[in-house]
């Protein structure tokens, strides 16, 4: 499993949108998903083959999505490699 140890979300907390910056050390199948505290997937930000590079994805959640805590999950080659907590105000 290869991924960059630098995964950031800004702004965090956020109101209307949040940008997730992450990196991939080697060419891999990468998935970037957002889950609520119940473990339900609320967004798919990325799901494709990526080359070794730095990336960013912007999440613009629906206005009906409640404020609260969410988790950004990064999966590389179907293995969960990182969770990042974000807060929607």
Which tags fit this structure?
single chain, 89 residues, three-stranded antiparallel beta sheet, Immunoglobulin-like, mainly beta
How do the helices and strands line up, and which of them pair or pack?
Elements: E1 8-10, E2 18-24, E3 28-36, E4 41-50, E5 53-59, E6 68-76, E7 79-88
Antiparallel strand pairs: 1-2, 2-5, 3-4, 3-6, 6-7
Describe it for me?
The protein is mostly beta strands and 89 residues long. The protein has one domain: Immunoglobulin-like. 0% of the residues lie in helices and 62% in strands. The chain contains no helices and 7 strands. The protein has strands at residues 8-10, 18-24, 28-36, 41-50, 53-59, 68-76, 79-88. The strands form 2 sheets. Strands 4-3-6-7 form a 4-stranded antiparallel beta sheet, with no helix packed on it. A hairpin with a 2-residue loop joins strand 6 (68-76) and strand 7 (79-88). The relative contact order is 0.32. The mean pLDDT is 91.
């Amino acid at each position: 499993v290869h991924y960059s140890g630098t995964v950031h979300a800004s702004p965090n907390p956020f109101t209307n949108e949040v940008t997730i910056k992450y990196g991939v050390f080697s060419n891999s199948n990468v998935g970037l998903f957002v889950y609520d505290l119940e473990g339900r997937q609320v967004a798919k930000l990325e799901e494709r083959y990526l080359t070794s590079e730095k990336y960013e994805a912007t999440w613009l959640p629906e206005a009906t999505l409640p404020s609260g805590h969410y988790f950004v999950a990064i999966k590389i080659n179907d293995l969960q490699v990182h969770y990042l907590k974000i807060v929607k105000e």
